[in-house]
């Protein structure tokens, strides 16, 4: 055969000339075995890293070179018969190329699925701290992470879940790769949340992530919340940072803190407060328990204190947020003082009250019994 292409080994054309010759002479179509062989060659080409474009080009070039040697085309036949033979040869070439492409695409799809499964398994093991740390570190290098260093994790959550095919996931992946490259930064999804893992010494990466996610949605009511964990070292540090981000999102969901971007470094008081649940329950009972004697129960007064502290202890702003008059608010604060013995306007007593209010929210009191 006159044509030769260095990029494609010669054995990829084995049997092709014979197939075309038989088709030209008999007008038959490719058999199942022949189609299966072409698919197998397509799969092999994909596995060997050859280009489908080159594979197709070689077969089309071979068809052109063989064309004038085919018996059905060069024989002493009528014009109509030659036309039918040529049509059959072209149909056979089309079948062969289609089978090659089918095998090639199937091999690529299987490879992608294997890669996706391996990546998902790695992410699950990384974020949940499963597996041998040494093996985990080795697998992490494939995705550009060096787990011996410090890493921090950011998590974004919205009303609708994120997955790998979500439009925001794709936009964020393009944005992060365009800004920071494919190494050191891992963007993924987990349990309907968008997760970004970045080197701990590069806080600008997670800040950029938070800023892009926050600005990606125009409608305020659909805007996601983003939590940034603190940097920690090693594989266990990734787990710790991830859990810090999840805890911050949980606090926001329970309306304990406000804001679109939540930073675990600014919320360290909450883990301290929840470390001893019994002590916190005792504080809530002793400080806020007397509010249960108020008409309507403790709930409205606890809410008043929460808004009062959240407003910087400014009466006018608190009254506005609660849709009360300043006079009505003043009465409530006086009632709290009378029942608890603690004055919300006194700095020291205010600290005790505020800590108890945070504890009440963490323990879901008074809805739940302590």
TrEMBL record:
<comment type="similarity">
    <text>Belongs to the CdaR family.</text>
</comment>
<dbReference type="InterPro" id="IPR042070">
    <property type="entry name" value="PucR_C-HTH_sf"/>
</dbReference>
<dbReference type="InterPro" id="IPR041522">
    <property type="entry name" value="CdaR_GGDEF"/>
</dbReference>
<dbReference type="Pfam" id="PF13556">
    <property type="entry name" value="HTH_30"/>
</dbReference>
<dbReference type="Pfam" id="PF17853">
    <property type="entry name" value="GGDEF_2"/>
</dbReference>
<dbReference type="InterPro" id="IPR025736">
    <property type="entry name" value="PucR_C-HTH_dom"/>
</dbReference>
<feature type="domain" description="PucR C-terminal helix-turn-helix">
    <location>
        <begin position="301"/>
        <end position="357"/>
    </location>
</feature>
<feature type="domain" description="CdaR GGDEF-like">
    <location>
        <begin position="129"/>
        <end position="251"/>
    </location>
</feature>
<protein>
    <submittedName>
        <fullName>PucR family transcriptional regulator</fullName>
    </submittedName>
</protein>
<dbReference type="InterPro" id="IPR051448">
    <property type="entry name" value="CdaR-like_regulators"/>
</dbReference>
